[in-house]
Structure formats: structure tokens, C-alpha cells
Specification:
two-stranded antiparallel ribbon, 2 strands
Length: about 170
């Protein structure tokens, strides 16, 4: 698969793949010594300068998509979920002697993608609501803190230490 296809499949640009292949994260996972391969595309209509593709093995594509999914890319998450589901279902069908047409598999995948999207949308709505509540809480905290600061200032103006224990020498400034 080309680097461009790998990136565009999950809604990113080719530079993200190139950066990932040079990253510490990739080197930690794969180790040293990976070089992408360049393939010439044979085109019988073109006489000079065949187009080239920077290809990646599928193992690397999956590692990249996993990494992007881990970093919050929802498209990568959906693709990996669908691939895992289809693969597991295929293995179970094979183990129990069942068969499924490509159309049946596509329908199940479409239903699963729809379910994933609904769940992701619901999760995003929950997160948005929680962010709103958190923002409101912080605003309320800021208001309360400003009141506290004003009370502290007024007490200090009158020679009272607002944080001192009463009936001690520290009570007055």
C-alpha cells in the first residue's frame, strides 16, 4: 500500500506517515532498519519516466493506523475495529464450518460501522456535556475565589490575618 493511501485512508496527509516512520514511537515498535520501498508503476501508455509509489508492507500500515487510533484518529479506530471484527468472524465461521458471502460480510460490516459511529457520536456528546459542566464549575470557582480574595483584602486592611487561627498571636498582622 502506498504511503499516500495509508494516510488518506484515515484522513491524514502523506507527511504524517513519513514523520511517523522517522519517529521514536515507530522505532520503539519496529526497531531500527526499516526503509520504505519504491515501486515503479508499469504504464504501457507512458514511454518515459514511470510513476513511482512509496510502498509500505501491510504490517507497517496496521502499526501506523494503530498509532493514529491511539492518538485519537476516529477513522483509524473504525477501520481497525472493522478489520478485527471481520477477521475474527471469518475465523469463527471457518472453525464452525459456516460460510458467508461477500455481500453478507459487507452488510455486517456496514451495520457495525453504523453502530460504531452512533456510539462515537454519543460519546462525543457526553464529552461535550462534561466539558460544559467543567467549564461552568471553573467559572463558579473563579467567582468564589474572587469573593474570597476580596474578603481577604478587606480583612488585611483592618489588620486581621484572614488565615490565622483565632485567639493566637498570629491573628493580627
Amino acid at each position: 500500500m502506498s504511503q499516500t493511501q495509508t494516510a488518506e485512508t484515515v484522513g491524514e496527509n502523506k507527511q504524517n506517515v513519513s514523520d511517523f516512520l522517522r519517529s521514536k514511537a515507530f522505532k520503539t515498535i519496529w526497531g531500527e532498519g526499516f526503509t520504505s520501498q519504491t515501486f515503479e508503476v508499469e504504464d504501457s501508455t507512458q514511454l518515459i519516466g514511470q510513476p513511482r509509489i512509496n510502498g509500505l508492507p501491510l504490517k507497517i500500515v496496521i502499526i501506523y493506523w494503530n498509532y493514529r487510533s491511539y492518538r485519537g484518529n476516529k477513522e483509524a479506530y473504525k477501520i481497525l475495529s472493522v478489520l478485527a471484527l471481520d477477521s475474527l468472524e471469518d475465523h469463527f465461521r471457518h472453525a464452525f464450518g459456516e460460510t458467508a458471502t461477500m455481500e453478507e460480510r459487507r452488510q455486517r460490516i456496514d451495520a457495525y460501522v453504523q453502530e460504531l459511529e452512533e456510539r462515537l457520536n454519543a460519546a462525543n456528546e457526553t464529552i461535550a456535556q462534561q466539558e460544559l459542566e467543567l467549564r461552568q464549575s471553573w467559572e463558579e470557582y473563579d467567582v468564589q475565589q474572587s469573593y474570597q480574595d476580596e474578603y481577604d483584602r478587606q480583612l488585611r486592611e483592618h489588620g486581621i490575618n484572614p488565615w490565622a487561627v483565632p485567639n493566637t498571636e498570629d491573628e493580627h498582622l
